[in-house]
Amino acid sequence: MRSVMPLLKDVSAGAQKGEAPHLQVFLSMCDLICCIYFIFTERRCCRKCRRTMPLDCLPFTRCKGHDSTQKHGGFKWSTLSSWSDSDRKAAAVGNKPAGKMAAGGHKLKLKLPKWGSHVAQIRRNSASATDGQTEPQDVHNETAAPPVPAPVPPAPLTFEEHLSALHLSEAGRLLLDREERLFGVEASPQGRRREDVDALAADRQSLEEVVLRTLRSSLDGADTEALKSAVTFMQLEDERDGVWERRGGMPPPWRLRDWTQVHVDTLQSVVEERMDAPRTTPTGQSSIQADVHGMGRQLRNDLLLVVERVKPCYPSHRCICQLYAACYHHCIGARLRRLADFGLDDQDCSFLLRWVNDYYPQLLQELKLAADIDIQVLQELLPENLLSPLEEQYLSRQQRELSTYVGRILDEAQEAWTKGEEPPREDECFVSPMAYDIIQLVNGIMNAAEKVVGDLQKAHTLTCQLQDLLHRFRNFQADVIRRNKANSPSFVKANLDSVAQFRHFLTTHSRLFPADVREGCLSVLSDMQQRAHEYLLGPVHKNLKPHYRKLFSQEWLKESTLDRLQSGLEDEMLQLQGPSKSCHQELIGRLQQEVSVEYVRRLLKGEIRLKDKRQQQQAADNVEDDARALHDFFTGHGSKEAWLQEPLSMMAEVLKLQDLPAIQFQVASLASTFPDFSEKHVMCLLKLKGNLTKEDKNNVKAVLAEIPEDSGQSRPFFSFVVVK
Question: For 79-89, what is each residue's pLDDT tens digit?
Answer without folding.
Answer: 434 444 444 44
